[in-house]
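Continuing the batch. This is chain 6 of the set; chains 1 through 5 are on the previous pages. Same settings as before, nothing changed between runs. Recording input and output for traceability.
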Amino acid sequence: MARAVLGKAELDEALGSLAGWGIEKGKLHKEFEFADFSEAFGFMVRAALAAEQRNHHPEWFNVWNRVVVDLTTHDSGGITASDTELAAEMNRLAG
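Output for chain 6:
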């Protein structure tokens, strides 16, 4: 069952607690930067395990020490609580 897309007020409230996240092209968006490739890749492994547990997978891109993440719930057609929850977990994992 698809989750409900967050309304503007709900999304604004969620963004208030998601340091570094914003909206870009209708998706939650953040660019993480790490000391080097090993740290970036380690973050991606931890985040992949968290995403798999939730059955909710990010769109992401990695070059050396940078990981760019976009989150949206495709079957709902927008940003849902699944996205904000994964964003919060990614922030936690990134330290």
